[in-house]
């Protein structure tokens, strides 16, 4: 059986139906609209990153939808992403973004395989310095880096110090998950 090899150009022909469409190495990934809990998790993390990046201006934080095209067969829309600055400013368009500083996906039952396997490989291949997966059910954050195939699972705090920053961002994960999950 022949399988279709999707390209980023094919995404333009897909319906605007509330689903998120991504292409990774010719595979089409379709994600339904996120839940409220998912959006709260992404937003809370984006706020923490924004506050930090205002103090340490080494990047700019965005939330999905924000399509990042790495090649003709690689286009993704991470839940939360940090781009480099361009002459001290956020990118004018997402077409200008060819690399990322940080990428974050909030795990859901429909995205687990894509987030933990397909996208983890993609972000390692694209040399994204850190890739985080927020697992709300486990109240944990999974951190991956390009030069280590192992995944670090954190449930207490995460420390992030992007290139060029003078101080790290330290996120109290217990407090974060408490805010997100309402306890």
What is this structure's SSE topology?
Blueprint (H helix, E strand, L loop, with lengths): L19 E5 L2 E5 L4 H20 L4 E4 L4 E4 L2 E3 L3 E4 L18 E5 L5 H14 L4 E6 L4 E6 L2 E7 L2 E4 L8 E4 H9 L2
Parallel strand pairs: 7-8
Antiparallel strand pairs: 1-2, 1-5, 3-6, 4-5, 6-7, 8-9, 9-10, 11-12
Helix pairs in contact: 1-3
Q: Any idea what the CATH superfamily is called?
A: tt1808, chain A
Number of domain modules:
1
CATH topology: tt1808, chain A
Q: Provide the CATH top-level class.
A: Alpha Beta
Task: Summarize the helix and strand pattern as letters.
Answer: EEHEEEEEHEEEEEH
Explained architecture:
The protein is of the alpha+beta class. It has a single domain, classed as tt1808, chain A. The protein is built from 3 helices and 12 strands. It has a 6-stranded mixed β-sheet with strand order 3-6-7-8-9-10, sandwiched between helices. The protein has a 4-stranded antiparallel β-sheet with strand order 2-1-5-4, with helices on one face. A hairpin with a 4-residue loop joins β8 (130-135) and β9. The longest helix has 20 residues, at 36-55. The mean pLDDT is 92.
List descriptors.
183 residues, alpha+beta, 6-stranded mixed sheet, 3 helices
Brief digest:
With 183 residues, the chain is α+β, with helices and mostly antiparallel strands.
């Amino acid at each position: 059986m022949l399988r279709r090899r999707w390209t980023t150009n094919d995404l333009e022909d897909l319906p605007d139906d509330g689903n998120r469409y991504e292409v990774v190495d010719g595979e089409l990934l379709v994600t339904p609209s996120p839940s409220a809990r998912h959006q709260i998790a992404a937003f809370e993390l984006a706020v923490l990153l924004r506050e930090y990046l205002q103090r340490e201006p080494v990047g700019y934080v965005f939330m999905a939808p924000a399509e990042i095209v790495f090649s003709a067969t690689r286009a993704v829309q991470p839940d939360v992403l940090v781009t480099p600055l361009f002459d001290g400013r956020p990118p004018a368009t997402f077409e200008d973004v060819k690399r990322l500083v940080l990428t974050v996906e909030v795990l859901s039952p429909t995205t687990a395989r894509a987030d933990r396997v397909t996208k983890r490989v993609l972000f390692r291949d694209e040399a994204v310095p850190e890739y985080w997966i927020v697992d709300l059910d486990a109240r944990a954050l999974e951190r991956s880096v390009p030069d280590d195939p192992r995944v670090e699972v954190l449930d207490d705090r995460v420390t992030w110090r992007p290139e060029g920053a003078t101080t790290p961002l330290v996120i109290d994960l217990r407090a974060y998950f408490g805010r997100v999950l309402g306890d």
